[in-house]
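Quick one: structure for this chain?
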Amino acid sequence: MWKSAPISVLHVISREIPLASFAGSKDATQIVPTSEHKNYLEEVTREGQKSLAGSVAEEYLKTRGLTSSTMDYFRLGYCVGGEMDGRITMPYITTTGVVAIRYKAIPTAAGMPGPKVLSAGDSGTRPYNVMSTIGSSDAIYITEGEPDTWTAHEIGLAALGIPGASGWKSLYRSLLRYRRVIVLVQNDDEGAGRDMAGRIASDLACRRVLMPTGHDLNSFYLEAGRQAVLDHIGA
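Got it. Here's what it folds into:
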């Protein structure tokens, strides 16, 4: 079902950025879905949303402190059938529509059923929730992973998610021009979050906020509540 065309622009973000911005960068080539594939991604997203209500995925998301409003904003869903059966659908949305979907496993009492997150096809690496960068907020909070991005939105922060501690690319800084950038650093991953924050700080001016020991943003929010998180990060 996957068809793609590699082109030398970052067409995976909220708007196209000319190749000249990344001259000489090995990160400049990205995978851009064809119109046909984007229609397929939109269909998968809609079906996932329809299946979310009353599902184990919805119950899990509620345990992570998410309201229906936040689930709707991110168009989160539940995959029924196929190789991604039983996973949460996490569409990557830009002004041109859904350009990729990642699939998150739902933890059980027995542990994580397979890899935590999977992608279908060669969808490339993209920042998550790029729509936050075209809003009116003067501050953008960078988080690691989709769940912390959901949490940031839930408590009222404009957040850009990086899919994994090694997912930051220097070209993403073009999304953050003329904004105050705050990196919310995980403190439960043996230093990977600090390493990511260091790479971001080498590319742009930012403030780094380390979560309390043993916490990422979501777990801190669940334990301490919204106001404690806002006080901790100085928002």
